[in-house]
Every structure is written in structure tokens, then in C-alpha cells.
TrEMBL record, chain A:
GO MF annotation terms: formate dehydrogenase (NAD+) activity
Keywords: 4Fe-4S, Iron, Iron-sulfur, Metal-binding, Oxidoreductase
InterPro entries from the UniProt entry: Mopterin_OxRdtase_4Fe-4S_dom, MopterinOxRdtase_cofactor_BS, TAT_signal, TAT_signal_bac_arc
Family: Belongs to the prokaryotic molybdopterin-containing oxidoreductase family.
Organism this protein belongs to: Evansella vedderi
Principal location class: other
EC number(s) recorded for this UniProt protein: 1.17.1.9
Cofactor(s) required for function per UniProt: [4Fe-4S] cluster; Mo-bis(molybdopterin guanine dinucleotide)
Location of this chain's protein in the cell: Cell envelope
Domain of life assignment: Bacteria
Full protein name: Formate dehydrogenase major subunit
UniProtKB/TrEMBL annotation, chain B:
Superkingdom field: Bacteria
Cellular localisation: Cell envelope
Signal peptide: none
Lineage, highest ranks first: Bacteria, Bacillati, Bacillota, Bacilli, Bacillales
UniProt KW Iron keyword: yes
One MF term in the entry's GO annotations: formate dehydrogenase (NAD+) activity
Stored InterPro entries: Asp_de-COase-like_dom_sf (IPR009010), Formate-DH-alph_fdnG (IPR006443), MoPterin_dinucl-bd_dom (IPR006657), Mopterin_OxRdtase (IPR006656), Mopterin_OxRdtase_prok_CS (IPR006655)
Cofactor(s) it depends on: [4Fe-4S] cluster
PROSITE patterns found in the cross-reference section: MOLYBDOPTERIN_PROK_3 (PS00932)
Protein known as: Formate dehydrogenase major subunit
Length: 188, 792
């Protein structure tokens, strides 16, 4: 099964993976049980990703079972890292399995010393309202006879940890709103 | 990178300067080691003996902030000892061009300087031309005013003794580096330069990189396998996020962002002033029109100048430091961060934190509660009751909880598939920006007038689902042939008449010729068969046009044959009438020996030559040494202490340190176990255990002078603030002898903050608000400080 998944890329669906496992194990339930005991990755969905840390761009395989990330490993098919990873790349499983990620969107009111959990809809409505209010009250259409269509009162920062498509969408919306203070990690 | 990670194995000499791949890009060392196995030499030049240094054949210590003397010394060494690649230099660079009569350089200042504005008029940093406008040349390199001789004269002052007195490098180490690296100035050998933020985070950062480029041109190392100038990028997609223009001064694909100026007052003015007559950028109007067709969709037409007027025009420098200065001054009311943590990563954190306290509202999207998300809490040192900012924390989906591509340092655009639904109630940044755009579109729907109009004209066609359709975003970035409705083949097909679109022209080609519903995303390519010279052309997609080695025409000689038959990239096939080989030619595929451009490998430059002399920099046509903003010694090369084109910020919190109070040079660096500002690693239980504490690394000599013992708590101070850390005493730092004076150097990681499992002081409380003259990248890597034992 692993040979198949590594040599020929396919995002193996659970069904495909299970079928391959069963075919390989010859439909013998006792044998299957023994094999599963040996490897916690025996019946996982395997998805290739690229390491989120430095820019070498190593391949990583994420193993998912029962809606949990049970294992991650260097992608042996990847021409750059050929299965190897550094200390950070080896630890990407914990990005999911950690209990330290906030559970809900959180709001802190002016002067308050604490967060309050909120729903996404509430957050989106309030943020959109603030963006519009700030933009509309500071927008400059023309200056010195030149159409400038900008607001300098809103700034956007970040993106090097995101995907190309996300970066493109962020620059599109921010420039669409007229921002000129658009910056990110590459500057620093 | 001009080249890519796997290509490093073809190098005969690897000069690592301003970077530490063994710790910060560990897997890349696989290819460094492969090169060494083939006889290649690893050279490490660094203020500190790093783990890369420990693997190196040659280590040379160099005081932080003295790359230009070091590299200029190598340039002079190569010239004096005739180690340069003469045929390459004469034919592929502008060495033979005759410089403008009025170009001058005297005592640290180039011609055209205005002391009041700290700017240069660059009109004399150009070439002499005949009546027809052709550049005058002397290919014998004898004319005293040709670039070659002007350059030789410029670097005459950078002799080995003066260089070593300034850099603090022992002379024998410098000579070893010079012999090893300059030995690649022959057709038989090739060398690479690998650098990172140790190079760029200086007031002369851009000229540091330029010095590397010049050295590589002299040695004939650009365009070749195992060669090039290779930036080791620090984040998984900092290449892509830069390409996508999340920076104030550029549009996607490196077109300059329009400014409030006569030069840019209309699309016609922009195109006229920003489009060179020759070179690939002569196509700029096609890229601009196609970009606006992507940005504004059907609303952009040739008749309305593709709504260029609606696109924001900047009136000032909006870069990171300027942004926080503007925030401190109250100009910025609302702030959004997307996976960035400036309260740890920004320079002069005390000022940047004070600036944030003035915001009306702040939106923070991140995986974890960062120091920036909690800038208002007691733990941050603030009084929450005095901060009236509304703060929104948006829990972000992790990297494998969504899909899309990232571009590595070698420009390989690689797809990341989604492995699992986002954790808890988190959402991807794409989801948030998409839904924010839709909320705003709804709010503006019933409004008219000049403020609403530009936003209403913005095209936002990423599907009707709750999540945006990533495939539609990919197609928009690649662009369309708007006549057929198929995605465009690549950027060579783009037009300026409104019949094509492309959100980012340099990526155009990764999704070629696809009808609606037909999937052709080449960033998903996973054929790992080596297609020759380890370029893996069928694995992922490298911009531009899937080229793996930029300027690869220069890998071949004047007859179009590889300089070295063991190191082939592309070559001219006379029978076929085209360039062929192991890579996609970075050249006109059919540009043959009779074509006037045959000897012009640098196709992005107007004259096709590598620029030993340039007018593309704000601070000089040649790199010249200036001391860091804070330095314990006077400049030995001229009476000008600081880069004369660097902007100096004054006002609150911008104090400058003096060597009397702060005699030690401080620098910052990274560790294998942590990443950037730390949210993704200091919250990771395994990594936190491996590297739990903030420390400052001191030499044995400095520790003895200060009465500091291993693991003592110490206070490091600068003109901006003080931090506490554990002392780590090593032999990796040594005192430097600079111009006869003993100078101490210390260093510390900048990963830590008050959130997470592994906590510690924020190093950037010490660093100043001053940046490079070209890019405004902050000078994190060389500042003055002092150190003492903490009381009790």
C-alpha cells in the first residue's frame, strides 16, 4: 500500500486506501488486525503537503484517521527532501493535535481586560462595518489634480505564511479598497 | 534564488555569507554535502561560528555590517590576480560600456548627491552614447572611462589589509576564502553564493546583495548549474507573497505600484515613464492592461484606461517602519494582520507597541494568540483600561487544513492539498478575505458616488460558495484569453488591448490553455523523474515559464556551447535552429548566432548585459562601504559614516546609541527549533522542550570582562530598551580587532515572546527604526548594546 501511495500520486480516499490495504492483505481478517496493530498508519488517508516553515519546500505526508492527524512524515517521493525533515518539519502534526489553538473567534472591547468568544457572523459584520466607516471617512479621491483613490487610515500586514491564492486575494481586496499601507514579512 | 536547492550539488565552491543553512534551512545541506562529496568547497563567512561554519572547509569571521568591504576585497583580488572569467565579462556584462563624462565618486559620495534630501540624482550614473543613441563601448577594456576601469579604480581602496582591518577577518582566512572562491572564475568551475537576512538586514542591505551579484558576474557564475546568487528565503511562501505584491511599492509581478506623481498620473503616463525601449520589460503595457482586466473584470475597458484611475496611488513611503511611524502619529486607525506578529518581529518593538495602542480597531488572524493579538494585556506590560482599541481575533486554519500553492526559494510553485477540516471553529485566510469582500460588496451595493465607485468596480468572482473556489483564483492569476474563454497559454500571449487578463503575469503559464472545467494546474505536477541535471521539470511549476535556472543563456559560450561539458544547462542546436537542453531557455528559443541579441543573456535588462555598473539603486552605481547606523568605529573608506541615502527617523523612541554607553555590537539570529516570531513553534510542546529559553550568546572574553557566568541572568541594553536573558558563553563569538581596537560582538535569537509554552524576552526591544536605502529593510543585524549581570 505505501509503495503504491508513494510511487503514484493519488490523494487516497479512505475507501481507496482501505481497498488497497485489504487487497494487499488478502482479505484475511486476522492478518489485517495484526498488521493494523503494527502500524498506526495502516488505514490512514494520506495527503501530501509542503512544509510550512522555511523555504526549502520539503514534501510532507499527513496521515489522517478518524478525523484526527495520527502521523506525519517526510514525503519520500519529493525530489528535494526525499523523505528527510528537520526538527520543525518533523513536528507539524502538533499544529493540529495541540490543544493550544483558540476554539472560537474572540473579541476584546475598548478598555476591556479580557476576550469574549463570538460567532463568525458577528465578527464579519462588525469588521466590515469598521472597515467601511474608516475607509469612507478618510478616502481621498483626488489630490493635486491626480486621481488617487486611496485611504491611508487602514493598514494590512502579513502573508508569507499563506498560500499564493490567499495572498493574491488579500492584495486584491486591500487595493480594491484603496489601501496603500500594504506590507508583510518580506520587508523585514 | 536564480537557481534552486537541488542545483547546489553542481557547485565547486559555495560561499555562504549572511546565512546559516545548517540551522535555518537544514535539508538544503543535503545538496551542500553532495557538492562537497564531488570535491566542492563550503566557505562560511559569519560573525559567529555557526553550525554551517562547523561543516565548512573554510570559515572566516567577519564583523556584522562589513559585507561590502569583504566582497569588494574579493572583487579586487579577482581583478588583481586575473582570476575573473574574461570572455564572460567582456561579452555578457556591461564592462565595456563607456560611463557618462560627469559620473564621479569622491570620498564616499557619488555624483548627483543632494545633502538636504539625502537623495541622489542618478542622471550621471549612465553611459555615453553616439548620435544614434547607441551606447559607446570598448571591448578591449582599455578606455579609462569604460565600466571595467572605473570599477577597478573604485575598488582600488579595498586592498586585503584595509579590508581585514575593517571586517576583523584574520588575513590568512581572507586569503583562503579569496583563493577558494575566485578559483571559480574559469569556464571549468562554478561557484554559488547563498545568503539570507544576515545580508539584507542592514542600511546597505541591497548593495550587499548587489556586491554578490557583481562578484558572480566577474567570475562568470550567473546562469550556470551550481552557480548564481541565491537568497535562502525564510518562510514557506515569502517568495510567493512577494510575487503577489503584499508590499506597498509593487503590483503583482513586480510592476511598480503607481504613485501620486506626474509620472503616474494616467495609464499613458505610467506606461510611457515605466516602459524601457528594449528588454523584456518593454512588454509592461501588456502586463498592466491584463492585470487591470483581472482586477476590475469587465468594468475595465480600453476606453476607460482599464480603470487605472481607480487603482490607489501612494504619496509616501508605506514600508514597515514608515507604517508604524504613521500609526504612532495617528494616521492609521484600522489594522489587519494575517499571520504576522510585529510585536515580536518588528524593529524597535517599544515604539511599534506604543503605535498599536493608538489604533481604533485591530483584526488579527492567526493560528495562536500571538504577542501582537494580545498587545493590550497586562502580560504585555500594558494597562488594558487605557487602551481603547477594539480587537478581533480570528482563529486561522493550519497549513494542511486548506488547499493552495506555495512558492519555495527556488521559485517552485508547489501545491498543498487539504488533509483535514480546519481545527475547532477556525477558517482559512482565503475564507475570511472572501467573506469580508462579500460583506463589503453588500454594504456598498446601494451606494453611489466617487468613494463607493472604485470598490464597486472591483471584480470578485471566486464562486458563490461559503469558501472561495481556489481553482477560480488560480485561473485568474494565470489569466485568460478573453476571446476564447480558455486560460491563456502563458504571458507571451498577453496583450494591451483588453482581450487578455492575468492577475500576475510572471505566474502566467502555470495553468495553460484550459477550458472551463478542465483542470491543468501545473503546481500539482508530481512526476519525480529527473529530466536532466536534476531540474525535475515535471515536478511542480517554476516561474517564469517553468525555468529552473535564471539567465541560463549565460551557461553557454559565444558559440552557444556549454562552458563546461560536465555542467550543461542549455545549448544552441544549429540543425534545429533553437536552444535545447536540460532547462527551459531563459532566452528567445530561436535567437541564433546571427541575431543581434545573441550575446545578451540578461533579457530583463534593456541592453541585455549583466550590470557591473547600474543606475537601478538609490545609493550608488557600485556598492560602497558605510558603517551601520550604530557602529563603534569610524568608516575607514571615506569620511561618510552612514549610507548617505538612508532615511533617518527621529522623534519618540528613536534614540541612537553611542559607543561610549553601548560599546558592543549586537546581532540577532534564528535556531533550528523555532521559526520566526515563534507562534507555530513556541506553542509546540516538542519544539518548546528542545529550545525552551531566551538566551544571549557571549564570548568567553566578554563574559570574563563583565563577570558573567554560564546561565547567569543578564540584562542586555540598547538606546531603545533593555531585555533579560540567560547567558550562554561560547567560543563561537570571539572579540574582533577592528582598526587596531578590540570590539566585542554578541548575538541572540529573536524568536521569543511572552505567549506560548517557551517564553522569553523579545530581542527586538533593542533594535532601531532605520532601514536600507533601497528597500527600508530594518537594520536588525548590527546595533550597539551593552550587557551586565542582572541584580540578585
Amino acid at each position: 500500500m505505501f509503495e503504491v501511495s508513494r510511487r503514484q500520486f493519488l490523494k487516497l480516499s479512505g475507501a481507496t486506501a482501505a481497498t488497497l490495504a485489504i487487497v494487499e492483505l488478502g482479505f484475511d481478517p486476522h492478518k489485517a488486525k495484526a498488521a493494523a496493530k503494527e502500524l498506526k498508519t495502516a488505514r490512514t488517508d494520506v495527503t501530501p503537503t509542503i512544509c510550512p516553515y522555511c523555504s526549502v519546500g520539503c514534501g510532507i505526508l499527513i496521515h489522517v484517521k478518524d478525523n484526527d492527524v495520527v502521523y506525519s512524515e517526510g514525503d519520500p517521493d519529493h525530489p528535494i527532501n526525499q523523505g528527510s525533515l528537520c526538527s520543525k518539519g518533523s513536528s507539524v502534526r502538533d499544529l493540529y493535535t495541540t490543544d493550544r489553538r483558540p476554539k472560537k473567534p474572540m473579541y476584546r472591547a475598548p478598555g476591556s481586560d479580557r476576550w469574549e468568544e463570538k460567532e463568525w457572523d458577528w465578527m464579519l459584520d462588525r469588521i466590515a462595518e469598521k472597515v467601511k466607516e474608516t475607509r469612507d471617512s478618510t478616502f481621498v479621491v483626488n489630490e493635486d489634480g491626480i486621481p488617487v483613490n486611496r485611504t491611508e487610515a487602514i493598514a494590512s500586514m502579513g502573508g508569507a505564511a499563506l498560500e499564493n491564492e490567499e495572498c493574491y486575494m488579500i492584495q486584491k481586496l486591500m487595493r480594491g479598497l484603496g489601501l496603500t499601507f500594504i506590507e508583510h514579512q518580506a520587508r523585514i | 534564488m536564480t537557481n534552486h536547492w537541488i542545483d547546489i550539488q553542481y557547485s565547486d565552491a559555495m560561499l555562504v555569507i549572511g546565512g546559516n543553512p545548517a540551522e535555518n534551512h537544514p535539508v538544503s545541506m543535503k545538496y551542500v554535502q553532495k557538492a562537497r562529496d564531488r570535491g566542492g568547497k563550503l566557505i562560511s563567512v559569519d560573525p559567529r561560528f555557526t553550525r554551517t561554519s562547523s561543516k565548512a572547509d573554510i570559515y572566516a569571521p567577519m564583523r556584522s555590517g562589513t559585507d561590502i568591504p569583504f566582497i569588494s576585497g574579493l572583487i579586487k583580488y579577482a581583478i588583481d590576480n586575473e582570476l575573473y572569467h574574461k570572455e564572460y565579462v567582456v561579452n555578457y556584462t556591461n564592462a565595456s560600456f563607456i560611463v557618462h563624462d560627469d559620473y564621479k565618486f569622491k570620498d564616499g559620495i557619488f555624483s548627483g548627491y543632494n545633502e538636504d534630501t539625502r537623495n541622489y540624482d542618478r542622471s550621471t550614473w549612465t553611459f555615453k552614447r553616439d548620435e544614434d543613441g547607441n551606447i559607446l563601448k570598448d571591448e578591449t577594456l582599455k578606455d579609462p572611462r569604460c565600466v571595467w576601469n572605473v570599477m577597478k579604480e573604485h575598488y582600488e581602496r579595498y586592498d586585503v589589509d584595509t579590508v581585514c582591518a575593517v571586517t576583523g577577518t584574520p588575513k590568512e582566512d581572507f586569503i583562503k576564502v579569496a583563493d577558494a572562491f575566485c578559483s571559480t572564475g574559469t569556464p571549468e568551475k562554478v561557484g554559488t553564493i547563498m545568503y539570507a537576512m544576515g545580508t539584507t538586514q542592514h542600511t546597505v542591505g541591497s548593495q550587499n546583495v548587489r556586491a554578490y551579484g557583481m562578484l558572480q558576474l566577474l567570475l562568470g557564475n550567473v546562469g550556470r548549474a551550481g552557480g548564481g546568487v541565491n537568497a535562502m528565503r525564510g518562510e514557506a511562501n515569502v517568495q510567493g507573497s512577494t510575487d503577489m505584491a503584499l508590499l506597498f511599492h509593487i503590483m503583482p509581478g513586480y510592476n511598480p505600484a503607481p504613485t501620486q506623481s506626474e509620472r503616474h498620473k494616467s495609464l499613458a503616463a505610467y506606461n510611457e515613464n515605466e516602459t524601457p525601449a528594449s528588454g523584456y520589460w518593454s512588454n509592461r503595457p501588456k502586463f498592466m492592461a491584463s492585470f487591470f482586466k483581472a482586477h476590475f473584470g469587465d468594468n475595465a475597458t480600453p476606453e476607460n484606461d482599464f480603470l487605472y484611475d481607480y487603482f490607489p496611488k501612494s504619496r509616501r513611503n508605506n514600508s514597515h517602519i514608515a507604517l508604524f511611524e504613521a500609526m504612532y502619529d495617528g494616521d492609521i486607525k484600522g489594522f489587519i494582520t494575517w499571520g504576522q506578529n510585529p510585536i515580536v518581529g518588528g524593529p524597535n518593538v517599544r515604539k511599534e507597541k506604543a503605535a498599536m495602542e493608538k489604533l481604533d480597531w485591530f483584526v488579527c488572524m492567526d493560528l495562536f494568540e500571538t504577542e501582537t493579538a494580545t498587545f493590550w494585556t497586562k502580560e504585555s506590560g500594558a494597562d488594558p483600561s487605557k487602551i481603547n482599541t477594539e480587537v478581533f481575533f480570528l482563529p486561522a486554519a493550519g497549513p494542511y487544513e486548506k488547499e493552495g500553492s506555495v512558492s519555495n526559494s527556488g521559485r517552485w510553485m508547489q501545491y498543498r492539498w487539504k488533509a483535514i477540516e480546519p481545527k475547532n471553529d477556525s477558517r482559512s485566510d482565503a475564507w475570511f478575505v472572501h467573506n469580508l469582500a462579500r460583506r463589503l460588496k453588500a454594504l456598498y451595493a446601494s451606494e453611489n458616488g466617487p468613494i463607493a465607485a472604485p470598490f464597486k468596480a472591483l471584480d470578485w468572482s471566486f464562486g458563490d460558495g461559503d469558501y472561495p473556489d481556489v481553482d477560480l483564483v488560480c485561473r485568474e492569476i494565470n489569466g485568460y484569453d478573453l476571446t476564447t474563454g480558455k486560460t491563456i497559454l502563458n504571458f507571451t500571449q498577453l496583450k494591451d488591448d483588453g482581450t487578455t487578463s492575468s492577475g500576475n503575469w510572471i505566474y502566467s503559464g502555470f495553468y495553460p490553455d484550459a477550458a472551463p472545467g478542465e483542470e491543468k494546474n501545473r503546481s500539482k505536477n508530481r512526476d519525480n523523474v529527473d529530466t536532466g541535471m536534476n531540474n525535475y521539470l515535471n515536478w511542480s511549476y517554476a516561474w517564469p515559464l517553468n525555468r529552473r535556472i535564471l539567465y541560463n543563456r549565460a551557461s553557454a559560450d559565444l558559440e552557444g556551447k556549454p562552458w563546461n561539458s560536465n555542467n550543461e544547462v542549455i545549448w544552441w542546436d544549429n540543425a534545429a535552429g533553437s536552444w535545447v537542453g536540460h532547462d527551459v531557455p531563459d532566452f528567445g528559443a530561436a535567437t541564433g548566432p546571427t541575431d543581434p541579441g545573441w550575446k545578451n543573456p540578461f533579457i530583463m535588462r534593456p541592453d541585455g548585459k549583466g550590470e557591473l555598473f547600474t543606475n537601478g539603486m538609490t545609493d550608488g552605481p557600485f556598492p560602497e562601504h558605510y558603517e551601520p547606523y550604530e557602529s563603534p568605529v569610524p568608516n575607514a573608506f571615506s569620511s561618510v559614516q552612514l549610507n548617505p541615502a538612508a532615511r533617518i527617523w527621529t522623534g519618540d523612541y528613536n534614540d541612537k546609541g553611542d559607543a561610549k554607553d553601548f560599546p558592543i555590537i549586537g546581532t540577532t539570529y534564528r535556531l533550528s527549533e523555532h521559526w520566526q516570531t515563534g507562534p507555530m513553534t513556541r506553542n509546540n510542546k516538542w519544539l518548546a522542550e528542545l529550545m525552551p529559553y531566551m538566551f544571549v550568546e557571549l564570548s568567553e572574553e566578554l563574559a570574563a570582562e563583565k563577570g558573567i557566568k554560564e546561565k547567569d541572568k543578564v540584562i542586555v541594553s540598547s538606546a531603545r530598551g533593555e531585555i533579560e536573558a540567560y547567558a550562554m558563553i561560547t567560543k563561537r563569538f570571539r572579540p574582533y580587532e577592528i582598526q587596531g581596537q578590540k570590539v566585542h560582538h554578541l548575538g541572540m535569537p529573536w524568536h521569543y515572546g511572552y505567549q506560548g509554552i517557551a517564553k522569553g524576552s523579545i530581542a527586538n526591544y533593542l533594535t532601531p527604526h532605520i532601514g536600507d536605502a533601497n528597500t527600508m529593510i530594518p537594520e536588525y543585524k548590527a546595533f550597539l548594546c551593552n550587557v551586565r549581570r542582572a541584580e540578585g
